[in-house]
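Inputs:
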Amino acid sequence: MEKKSTIVEILHVSKSYRRGSQIVPVIDDITFDINEGEFLALMGPSGSGKSTLLNLIAGIDKVDNGTITVGGVDITNLAETDLARWRSVNVGFIFQFYNLIPVLTAFENVELPLLLTPLSRDERHSHVETALRVVNLLDRVDHYPKQLSGGQQQRVAIARAVVTDPTILVADEPTGDLDRVSTGEIMELMDRLNIESGKTIIMVTHDPRAAQKAHKIRHLDKGILSDNEHS
Amino acid sequence: MNILKILFKNAFRHKLRTGLTILSITIAILAFCLLRTVISAWYAGVEASSANRLVTRNAVSLIFSLPFSYKEKIRQTEGVSTVSYGNWFGGIYIDEKNFFANFAVEPKTYLDLYPEFRLSEDQKNAFLRDRRGFMAGQKLAAKYGWRLGEIVTLKGTIFPGNWEFVLRGIYKGKDDTTDESQFLFHWDYLNETLKRTAPGRADQVGFYMIGVSSPTLSTQVAERIDKSFKNSIAETLTETEKAFQMGFVSMSNAIITAIRLVSLVVIVIILAVVANTMAMTSRERIGEYSIFKTLGFGGWRIAGLIFGESLVITMIGCVFGIGFTFPVADAFGHAMGTYFPVFNVDNDTLGLAVLYSFAVGILSAIIPTYRAIKIPIADGLRSIG
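Outputs:
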C-alpha cells in the first residue's frame, strides 16, 4: 500500500491563556502528524484543549511555543495578513453553529470565500453550483439561513468550506447542534468528501458515533495528547 | 455578489435602527443647511455688492444725514462717474410685521448704478415720469399682490404721515443673488413734502451712492471725497459698498457666531448618533467579523465593510437631508422673504454638508473597526451560539 505523505506536522506545540492574573495552560508540548487524505477525530472532555488545537492547526490562533507546518508552510511564522491569505486558500471551516451570514442566501454564503480569489463572476457561480450540488442543496440556493433547517445550514457551511478546494477541512463539533438524522447525513457527507475527494479532515467531536466515521481518533486530556490512537 | 452588496445588506439588516439613524442624519443635515443658509443670507448684501460702487455717509453715524449740497462737490471728484443719493424711509405697510426695505432715491442715477435691477423700458419711463411713483421687486409685489397702477400707502415712522405711492414698475433681479424685495420711490417726492411740512429736515440725504470709473480707483476716490469734506459741518465716511454692507453684518456678529456654533453642534450630535449605531452594530456582529476573518478576509477588508456600512448610512442621510433642504429653504425664504430677501442654498453649504457627513461616517467607524480587527478570531467566534 502506498504510504501517504504528511500534510500537517505539529512539533512541540504549547498554548496557554491568561485569565486575570493566572496563566492557564491549554496545550502542553504536543507533537504529532496528520497524513494527507486522513480523517482524524480529536476527542476529549470539555476544556481538554481540542478546539484550541484545531484553531492552531487552522491558523486562527497563535502558538506560544512549537511549530505547525501545513502543506509545507510553517504557519506559526506567518504575519496576520499572510495568515489570512493562507487560510483563504488552504483551510475550509465547519463550525458547530454553522456560522453562516444571516443576510446572505445559501448561494451567497458559499460564494463568500471566492470573493477573495481572482475568479470571474461566472467561474465563481460555477464553483458555487458544484459545491451546492455536492451537498445536495441546489434547490435551496435562494434561501436564507433562517429558512433552512439545522442540517441544511450545516450542509451549506460544508459547501462553503469546500468551495475553494482547500488543503485541509477543519470541523469543530460539526454535529453538536444537530439531531440524530441530520448528524447521520452530515457525517455521511464528510465521509464522502474524505473518500471520494480525498479531503484531509480534522474534526473535533464529543460524539462517539460521529467519531466512528473517522479513520483515526486521538484523545486529548488536560492539554496532553494521549498515546492511544484508535484506527 | 460583491462587497458592495454585502455593505447594503448589512446596513439595512436592522431596518428600524438604520431608518431612524438615517432620519436623524437627514434632519441634522437639513438643520445644518438651513442654518448655514441663514448665515449666507446675512451676507447676501455683501455678496451682491459691486466693486464699482462707493457709499458716502455721515462720519459720525448712519443715523445722521448729509447736506444735499454735497452732491455737486462729490460729482466733481476725480474718478467719480455717477452720483446718486437717498434716504432710508422706514415706512410701514399696514402693520409693523410687514417689514421690507424702503428707500427714497434719485431714481435715474440709482437705476444707472444698479443695472442688476431689471425692469422693462415702459415701466422704467413710467416710474421716472411719476414723482409719486415707486418700483418694487417682484418678490415684494407678489407677496402683497400689488399690480401696476395700484396705490400703496406707507405710514412714515422717520418721516411722519401717510405717504401714498403709485406702483409704476416691478423689477426682476439679474440673478438669484439680487434682492427682489425693495421698495424704491422718488427722493424729490420726500424732499418736496418735507419742504412743506418740516422745512428743517429738507435737502438732507442719508447716503450718497457713488459710481467710480474703475474699481481700482475706489480707495483713492473714497479718500478724496472724505478729504474734501474734512472739517465741514458734516464730515463724511466713504467706503466700498461691500465694506458698508459688512458694517451692517458686523452688528450681528454675535448672532451669526451663535448660529455657526449651533450648526457645528448639529454635526457633533449626528456624529454621536451614527457612532452609537455603528458601535451597537459592531458589538452585535463581532462574531460575524470573526467568521469573515476565518474565511481569509484581512484587516483592510473588515475595515472596508465597517467603514463602508457607516458611509452608506451617513451618505444616504446626507442625500435625503440635502434633498429636503431645497423645498424647506424655499418655503422658509418665502415666509421670511422681507427679512432675508436673498435666501438661496449655496454650493459651499452643500459641499460642507457632504464633507461633514463623510467625516461623520469615517469617524463613527474608527473605534468599531479597531475592535473588530483587534479581537482574536477565537474570542470572536466564542461570542456566537
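Remarks. Helices of chain A lie at 50-58, 80-90, 106-111, 121-134, 150-162, 180-197, 208-211. Chain A has a mean pLDDT of 89.
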